[in-house]
Write a structure and sequence with these properties.
The chain has 4 helices and no strands. It has 120 residues and is an all-alpha fold.
């Protein structure tokens, strides 16, 4: 907090990470819906990674926005979840939705890794 009791403004880097997290969250949720429509054992295994990533990215964005002292650690964990989800999505290279989701996950993982190393 600043002397006036207000939180410092979010840095551009932090804003980009929050946006990447929210985009990834949305893409994972859309991909879960796509998996549910397709059914099958292969989709069920990917869905666990999608749901973990979706929850982590939402929570990570929330923690950054409220300047949680745990945000940097959460960003590191979020990057790991995003990497795992991207890898799971890449197991279905012929599925366009999966490929879009993998890309969103990779971008989010990159921004989260950067934020994990930054002072918030």
């Amino acid at each position: 907090m600043t002397q006036s009791g207000m939180m410092p403004a979010m840095t551009r880097q932090m804003q980009e990470c929050v946006e990447a997290c929210m985009n990834c969250h949305s893409m994972c949720e859309q991909t879960v819906c796509s998996c549910m429509q397709q059914g099958g054992q292969e989709q069920m295994q990917v869905m666990r990674a999608l749901m973990d990533c979706s929850e982590m990215t939402r929570m990570c964005a929330d923690m950054m926005m409220r300047r949680s002292p745990l945000a940097a650690e959460m960003c590191a964990l979020c990057a790991r979840a995003c990497d795992m989800c991207a890898e799971a999505c890449m197991s279905m290279p012929d599925d366009e939705q999966m490929m879009r989701c993998a890309e969103a996950c990779r971008r989010c993982a990159d921004t989260c890794r950067t934020m994990a190393g930054a002072s918030m």
